[in-house]
Amino acid sequence: MRSSLALRTLAVLAALAAAPSWAGVQFTHRDWQLACDNTRTCRAAGYQADEAAPAVSVLLTRAAGPARAVTAQVAIGTYDDSKAAAPSQVELSVAGRSFGAIVLKPGEATGSLEAAQVAALLQGLLRNEEIAFGAGQQRWRLSDDGAAAVLLRMDDIQGRVGTTGALVRKGSGGEEHVLRSLPKPVVQAAAVGVAAGQALAVAVLRSLRKAPGDCQDLKEPGEAPKAWRLQGRKVLVSARCWVAAYNVGYGFWVANDKPPYQPVAVTTDGTAFEPERSRIIAMQKGRGLADCYAIDEWVWDGQRFVHTGESTTGMCRLVAAGGPWTLTTLVSEVLAPPEQRTTEEKRK
After folding, report:
1. Minimal CA–CA distance to 178: which of 162, 198, 191, 194?
2. 328 within 8 A of 184, measured Cβ to Cβ
3. By Cβ atoms counted within 10 A, which residue in 28, 31, 170, 327 is the most buried?
4. How confident is the model at residue 339 (pLDDT cuts 50, 70, 90)?
5. Where are the alpha helices (DSSP H) in the chain?
6. Tens digits of per-residue pLDDT, 249-290?
7. What letter does residue 173 receive in the DSSP assignment?
């Protein structure tokens, strides 16, 4: 008899098969950027003016569908200072008028705005009014340069232009016809076997007719390749492909474990393989200061590595080491391999 979890998984997969697919969107204009993921949830991030200090960023998030509110968070720049030295709260002011305090999480220097503060912030962005976050004599000024274009793009992607719920071009139209949220794709991860011998990894790589253009290190290997057994007669092979000033990229191929190996590339920009999660990760810095990253992940489903996640951590504006936000363009629900589910998950 099938478990309730298995039945729910099959139901979700059946629904997704009939659901329309939609690719994520990225858009940047001046000091603002937009990332909308494959569920049509959009995130808009704004920063201080380029080259200005101190650093600050605001993240606006809105899910697709009727009557969905905008939420907002603020991140006070901590790249050059300890997060422990950040204030416990900041005061939001728009056009010189105070809209109250925002409590910052200890050790994170981020805080969530209340609904009235979000409304004031949005109004200030569209009216080109000065927006600042203050604590004592310190002021963190948010740029509005590019905000209108980014928020209009968000409205357009979610089908809100001309409706009462639009942020920029409001109209008399109701929200009953705005685009709905789409479900996350569900990926059932499959367990990965033990590491395979290095000789097999070398043989698979030698079967490539020539080194790919984005994997020049295969011509003169600087590290020993690795291999892991997958389902059936498949193996995953990894080798270093390239080294840059502050990044390194590893290639990953799925191949047969006997000739003909027929390797198929997953990525040449990978940074790690996590066998316990059946997952390949690619996490690359936007620049040497490491204040911004691009992140991708692929999960083995028993047949192939499925692209399950794609995001950045925002603009390179020295807000925080590693970046202040997760701006997602691809999101999935990944189910752990049955053998690795927790006791609570097995009960469901």
Report:
1. 162
2. no
3. 327
4. confident
5. 4-18, 115-126, 147-157, 198-206, 343-347
6. 999 999 999 999 999 999 999 999 999 999 999 999 999 999
7. B
Range with the poorest average pLDDT among 43-52, 138-147, 205-214: 205-214
Tokens of 305: 């590595």
What predicted TM-score, i.e. pTM, was given to this entire model? 0.90
In sequence order, what DSSP letters do the residues of 22-74 get, joined into one string? ---EEEEETTEEEEE-TT--EEEEEESPTT-SS-EEEEEEE-SSTTPPPEEEE
List 227's β-bridge partners, or say none. Answer: 237
> pLDDT by residue (tens digit) across 310-319?
999 999 999 9
> How many angstroms separate the CA atoms of 32 and 262, rounded?
44
What are the structural domains, with CATH classification, of the chain? 23-177 (2.60.40), 186-347 (no CATH)
Residues in the chain: 348
Paired with 140 in beta bridges are 133
- Cβ pair 303, 264 in contact under 8 A: no
